[in-house]
Automatic annotation (TrEMBL):
<feature type="domain" description="Lacto-N-biose phosphorylase C-terminal">
    <location>
        <begin position="670"/>
        <end position="730"/>
    </location>
</feature>
<dbReference type="InterPro" id="IPR013780">
    <property type="entry name" value="Glyco_hydro_b"/>
</dbReference>
<dbReference type="InterPro" id="IPR013783">
    <property type="entry name" value="Ig-like_fold"/>
</dbReference>
<dbReference type="InterPro" id="IPR035080">
    <property type="entry name" value="Lact_bio_phlase-like_N"/>
</dbReference>
<dbReference type="Pfam" id="PF09508">
    <property type="entry name" value="Lact_bio_phlase"/>
</dbReference>
<dbReference type="InterPro" id="IPR035356">
    <property type="entry name" value="LBP_C"/>
</dbReference>
<dbReference type="InterPro" id="IPR029062">
    <property type="entry name" value="Class_I_gatase-like"/>
</dbReference>
<dbReference type="InterPro" id="IPR012711">
    <property type="entry name" value="Lacto-N-biose_phosphorylase"/>
</dbReference>
<feature type="domain" description="Lacto-N-biose phosphorylase central">
    <location>
        <begin position="446"/>
        <end position="663"/>
    </location>
</feature>
<dbReference type="Pfam" id="PF17385">
    <property type="entry name" value="LBP_M"/>
</dbReference>
<dbReference type="InterPro" id="IPR035363">
    <property type="entry name" value="LBP_M"/>
</dbReference>
<dbReference type="Pfam" id="PF17386">
    <property type="entry name" value="LBP_C"/>
</dbReference>
<protein>
    <submittedName>
        <fullName>1,3-beta-galactosyl-N-acetylhexosamine phosphorylase</fullName>
    </submittedName>
</protein>
<feature type="domain" description="Lacto-N-biose phosphorylase-like N-terminal TIM barrel">
    <location>
        <begin position="5"/>
        <end position="440"/>
    </location>
</feature>
<dbReference type="GO" id="GO:0004645">
    <property type="term" value="F:1,4-alpha-oligoglucan phosphorylase activity"/>
</dbReference>
<dbReference type="GO" id="GO:0005975">
    <property type="term" value="P:carbohydrate metabolic process"/>
</dbReference>
Length: 734
């Protein structure tokens, strides 16, 4: 294939002789710099689109040092400290924090700080505590604590060192480079900072006529990222708003909403309102308040960029609080595109599904950083892993562009890696060219994923720090990872959407997560209107799939409030006196491609069938891991957990068809017999894109209709032998 384009490559100074050949080889039609690199003078002669990184809220150390009162802040909580039998209690509030990143803000501390008795939840009156010390060495002393009660201090703190620049600084060993400084950020709410941001934006655009795309490394407020006293991550929440606070913002909030904010509204008992928490009204108000502010100011910057004939591109990471791309204010900004790091199929869909932009771009792994591109590193292996994860999502909802980041001078030292990304670029372009620019066909089964966030956090559930692995979430994140490459148009719906009648637009609903979290729902399930809506949905023919601890809250003798629909409940120890005689019946449509055990990851544990009508499909240690249940005209499916694997993706694929009552249609869907192979059908082009997701050769049978997925043509059967990781286009009409 001689098609070129759709690829952005990082370039840097000192490679002028190599750049034209590398760009030609990879078919790259755009170049960019990275954090810590600069575009070479030859850039304007390369004949490609030019991106340049821009940091609205950091990068000018002279301004930052002259306006230290404009630094961003966040709320932090001290250690939990137990009071002694008698006498005062002294708490070193900076214990465990990195003093080069964090410094307590001792402004109006009696207004903005809070000392809480965590044993009772009561706030200690301000006259009951005092503060001593300065800079990063601060102690709060509680004069008369209650003996053996636990206390914490919630304090407002300056961000002394920008979190992302700190990460890049330490990762790339910049401490020995005299040209590198520890950058300080500035807050867009500060009047001087905002005037500086807008004037700097205009000046920057004027001085760079060669730049076509301003690649905003997001905007004003960093996600919550705090380091410990060893300079390692202490707390990270990619969705956190704790770093968006300031007295200016909180006073403006009070003037608009009519009530005061307190430290605990952000500290949230030390959970910092992370996305696993069911959002409180106060936190929802704060998110909306900050999103309106950020979006309005980002629009001003985007308008400046457009006035110079340039495009505005947002990096989905780092400082993105307030510009959530599935939020209701996003369309008002006018952003041309979004680029984000692709760490999995789910994160790829998170980027490619963003509405209201002209193009989406995925930044593939590995970054060209010395932590991978070094003797003993495996950049080729990481590139293959990244592509296999992303490809199945791209084949469902293609990104418009792909690219890489980091130091090209490192990557070219690994010729096998360069050869592989050349192949990846060609394979990516084929999806657009052979697919003729159309989206692949999806099943007509309408699928919704139900949680507290709904559409606002589309493709972002069960994540802590992007796509990284965490013990208690991989069993749930695997559901999103599976769905990212399956042929369904997934809708993310909230509990309020259900109350508003959204179930009428769906055939199957999934509720996935651990009890009490925003994703399972917690006390939302005590609402009669919600629970009867789901039961009525199932009784009238809808499908409900619960994974982990769905609808879980103890109430009236049941833990799963949809136990009647799902056919299972969880034993909490209250009903051990009830005898149960589980019988496994493993043969079922759902398990047809699962000859052995089901991997449920951490699993939910102690799940029992509620009656003989429940079909127990997998049982382990007398705990149900997979079950199917008929409920009225509808069906329920329960799965104890679903880490991503080829086998588990197939189980979910079949479970959705069975829950929808459409299992008779499954064989006409071009579903490969080998679960390690997947297919995307492009009916307008009359072709299908077949992907071997395995790193070994695979043989498979394909059965489907020549007209696509849901047509009435004759069923055709094909036999294919695929090389490791191979993709192949097949003609559905031939």
């Amino acid at each position: 294939m001689n098609v070129r384009g759709r690829v952005t490559l990082p370039i840097e100074q000192g490679m002028d002789d190599q750049l034209p050949q590398i760009l030609d080889r990879l078919g790259a039609d755009a170049v960019r710099n990275s954090d810590g690199t600069w575009l070479p003078e030859i850039t304007s002669q390369l004949g490609v689109k030019v991106y340049e990184t821009y940091f609205p809220a950091r990068g000018n150390q002279e301004f930052a040092l002259a306006h230290l009162d404009a630094r961003p802040r966040f709320y932090l909580m001290s250690d939990r400290v137990t009071a002694p039998a008698e006498g005062p209690l002294a708490i070193d509030i900076m214990n465990g924090y990195y003093k080069m990143q964090v410094e307590p803000d001792q402004g109006d501390l009696q207004r903005w700080w809070e000392v809480i008795d965590r044993t009772t939840g009561e706030v200690v009156p301000v006259e009951g505590w005092s503060v001593s010390g300065e800079g990063a060495d601060v102690t709060v002393t509680i004069a008369a604590p209650v003996a053996f009660h636990v206390y914490t201090v919630s304090f407002l703190a300056w961000q002394v060192w920008d979190s992302t620049q700190m990460y890049n600084y330490t990762t790339n060993n910049w401490e020995n480079d005299p040209t590198r400084v520890r950058e300080i950020g500035y807050d867009a709410r500060h009047p001087d900072a905002w005037e500086f941001m807008t004037s700097s934006m205009r000046k920057w655009c004027e001085e760079r006529p060669e730049v076509d795309v301003v690649r905003f490394t997001t905007f004003f407020y960093h996600f919550t990222l705090v380091f410990n006293d060893l300079g390692k991550e202490k707390y990270v929440d990619w969705f956190g708003y704790s770093a968006s606070v300031s007295p200016l913002a909180m006073e403006a909030f009070e003037a608009e909403y009519g009530y005061k904010l307190r430290a605990e509204d952000f500290i949230d008992e030390g959970y910092y309102n992370n996305s696993f928490r069911v959002p409180s009204k106060v936190f929802s108000d704060w998110m909306d308040f900050q999103s309106r502010f950020v979006s309005s100011r980002v629009k001003e910057l985007v308008d400046i960029v457009h006035s110079f004939g340039k495009e505005a591109l947002m990096f989905l990471g780092d400082t993105w609080m307030g510009t959530e791309p599935y939020g209701k204010y996003w369309p008002e900004i006018g952003m041309d595109g979004v680029v984000g790091s692709v760490g999995s199929a789910a994160t790829c869909r998170m980027i490619s599904d963003i509405p209201g932009i002209r193009y989406s771009e995925g930044r593939f792994l590995p970054y060209f950083f010395p932590d991978v591109f070094k003797p003993g590193g495996d950049p080729l292996g990481e590139a293959n892993e990244s592509w296999l994860q992303a490809r199945r999502a791209i084949a469902r909802k293609p990104l418009e562009r792909i690219g890489y980041g980091g130091y090209l001078s490192l990557a070219v030292q690994f010729p096998e890696f360069m050869a592989r990304i050349e192949q990846i670029a060609d394979e990516f372009r084929s999806i657009h060219e052979v697919g003729e620019g159309h989206l692949p066909q999806s099943s007509t089964i309408r699928v919704g994923l139900l949680n507290a966030w709904g559409a606002q956090r589309s493709w972002q559930t069960h994540m802590v720090a992007h796509a990284l692995w965490y013990k208690q979430i991989y069993s749930y994140l695997g559901v999103l990872e599976s769905l990212a490459g399956l042929p369904f148009d997934l809708q993310f719906i909230s509990f309020d959407d259900v109350r508003d009648g959204k179930l009428d637009d769906l055939d199957v609903v999934l509720n996935v997560g651990a009890a009490g979290t925003a994703f399972s729902g917690g006390e939302q399930w005590l609402d009669n209107d919600l629970i009867t809506a789901l039961r009525g949905f199932a009784a009238n023919g809808g499908g409900v799939i619960g994974i982990g601890e769905p609808s879980a809250v103890q109430h009236q003798g049941a833990y799963f409030q949809l136990s009647d629909v799902l056919g299972v409940d969880k034993e909490l120890g209250f009903s051990q006196s009830t005898d149960r005689y589980p019988v496994e019946r493993p043969e079922h449509f759902i398990t047809a491609d699962l000859p052995g055990a089901l991997d449920v990851g951490e699993g939910a544990g102690d799940i029992f069938a509620t009656g003989d009508a429940t079909q127990i499909l997998r049982l382990q240690n007398r705990s149900v891991e997979l079950a199917a249940n008929q409920q009225g005209e509808g069906r329920g499916v329960y799965i104890a957990g679903l880490p991503y694997s080829h086998e588990n993706a197939r189980v979910l694929h079949r479970a959705i068809f069975w829950a929808a009552g459409r299992e008779a249609d499954f064989d006409a869907q071009w579903v490969p017999s080998n679960v390690g192979v997947e297919v995307s059908v492009f009916p307008e082009a009359g072709k299908a894109f077949v992907m071997n997701n395995l790193t070994e050769a695979a043989a498979t049978t394909l059965r489907g209709r020549a007209t696509g997925l849901d047509g009435d043509g004759a069923i055709t059967e094909l036999q294919l032998d695929l090389e490791p990781m191979e993709s192949r286009w097949i003609d559905l009409q031939g």
